Amino acid sequence: MVVTTITNLEFGKMVQAAAAKLNQQAEFINSLNVFPVPDGDTGTNMSMSMTSGAKYEREATSTAVGELASAVAKGLLMGARGNSGVILSQIFRGFAKGCEGKVTLSAKEFVDAYANGAKTAYKAVMKPTEGTILTVVRESAQAGLNKVKESDDLVVILKAIVEAADAALEKTPDLLPVLKEVGVVDSGGQGLAFVLHAFYGALTGEEIETEIPDNAQMDEMINAKHHQSAQGKLNPEDIKYGYCTQMMVRIGKGKQVTQKFDYKTFYDYLAKLGDSLLVINDDEVVKVHVHTEHPGKVLTWGQQFGDLQTVKIDNMRWQQEEIMKDDDPTPVEVAQEAKDEVPAETAVIAVASGDGISKLLKSLGVTHVITGGQTMNPSIQDITDAINQSGAKQALVLPDNGNIFMAADQAAEVAEIPVKIVHTKTIAQAMSALLEYNPEADLVDNQKAMESVLENVASGEVTVAVRDTQLNGKTIKKDDYMGIVDGKIVAVEKTIEDAAEAMVTSMLDEDSEIVTILYGADGDQAGAETLRKKILAQDDELDVQIYEGDQPVYPYLISVE
């Protein structure tokens, strides 16, 4: 069989086959996650991203391959989830640019367009890492450039591209030591290899093994992912301290100053008035967040050290009553402000999973929460919609997960209003960053101030191993509990309590002041209280705060500042 030209028919079959292949192999790709935790999502992200691209291609009416490629690229861009999905979208973006204006593609035009996709993907990544999908796309593209010098048969050329992709994939463990230690190939590279195999199969007439989801099925897949995070509601009467009170005090300014600011004196008094206390200061201002029954006492205390620059008090019991009026809010409803509220000048948008975490972030100044996070990364479209529908004049976005950075950055580029990304990797970082937010400052200054505190937070997570492995010099057995701090496994234990305690011990140092525990759907208040006692036994001067986070996958998220 010889194929020298790709028409709209061949191109459509190739795109649909790629989406079907990724849909079929999503769980296998997920299983290549380096960490043996139940949150591998590269396959899911790439599958849903490619499905979005295939949807756009199906709906396009043009018969020109160049225009169909642009439709695929647009669909991939808006549907891209996670870093792997965004990189895949950039490959197709470069491919589309490379065949602009083309009605059909010759072998040389196809190869040149694919090579342009590889270049575009590399440019999209700030610090390209070899041993990843980038290696696979670069080496397979080079194989195509070499083979097209010898043949104009696309079957021959695509076979060379596929073989080069497989070879590049096999050597990813030699380029990334962590892959070799665990004994897996790169998951993103595996996903791209599946795309190329599907292209080859479609071009040679192989049957597509799996049907690609139609538009309705795709929407159902997305909704199912979001619903995984739905949790039970808290009874308003169970809220011990009902008023979320925030203030920013200009130290030494004003007519009612009676005390010179001392952090310990200032903090200790407020600690007696409630819980969830956060106090951050520099030489000019001190910012406070506390849950209390006496907001007036908080404000009066603040005025003894300076005048009140900003004040915000929310009745959390009333807020919870309003939330409980709707037993099953949709992700859109959770993500948007109530329609009768005046939109904020600046939308502060965060990504979070778990009702408790969402409420906590809103109490710290977040105006919109996008339901998502680990295992269910929001797409570029999700983030863009949240920005554009906020009604604000500008926006700050906190991804709260490193795997959402690229999608957030792309959303900022296509949004209708100015946007800056505060590159928070964890909920704990988001909490600290939000205390630096100043509604009166501009976007750039807020971004700088909020990102300046991120390195002061150590973020840990406790979860269960889903397979045996050897990683970070530790032998891990299926069903062991692991403590992971800033991406490194520091504790492996047989019980969740022992893993959490060992992890926190590794996080503490002489400068530690605040420990925050967020217990998830698989954790509980009693376990968190037991952990608090063990932490205080190590250092009784620490302030240990506990919140119900409701997050999936991780029974405990713990931070130390």
Describe this structure in words.
With 561 residues, the chain is α+β, with helices and mostly antiparallel strands. 48% of the residues lie in helices and 18% in strands. The chain contains 22 helices and 18 strands. It has helices at 8-30, 42-59, 65-79, 82-98, 107-124, 133-147, 154-170, 172-175, 177-182, 187-204, 215-227, 263-271, 295-303, 316-324, 331-335, 355-363, 380-388, 405-414, 427-434, 443-451, 496-507, 525-538, and strands at residues 5-6, 105-106, 243-251, 274-281, 285-292, 306-315, 346-352, 368-371, 394-398, 419-421, 458-464, 469-471, 474-476, 481-485, 488-493, 514-519, 543-548, 556-560. The strands form 5 sheets. A 6-stranded mixed β-sheet has the order 15-14-11-18-16-17, sandwiched between helices. Helix 16 (355-363) links the parallel strand 7 (346-352) and strand 8 (368-371). Helix 1 runs antiparallel to helix 10 (187-204), helix 2 (42-59) runs parallel beside helix 4 and helix 4 crosses helix 18 (405-414). The longest helix has 23 residues, at 8-30. The protein is elongated and about 85 Å long. The relative contact order is 0.09. The model is unreliable at 218-234 and 326-342 (pLDDT under 50).
Unreliable spans are 218-234, 326-342
Helix percentage = 40-55%
Taking all Cα atoms into account, the compactness measure Rg is 26 Å
Give the tally of β-strands: 18
Structure classification: alpha+beta
Overall average pLDDT: 85
Question: How does the overall form come out from the CA principal axes?
Answer: elongated
Number of DSSP helical runs: 22
What is the distance, rounded to the nearest whole angstrom, between the alpha carbons of the first and last residues?
Answer: 64 Å
Strand content: 15-25%
Q: Which sequence of strands runs across the widest sheet?
A: 15-14-11-18-16-17
Largest sheet: 6 strands, mixed
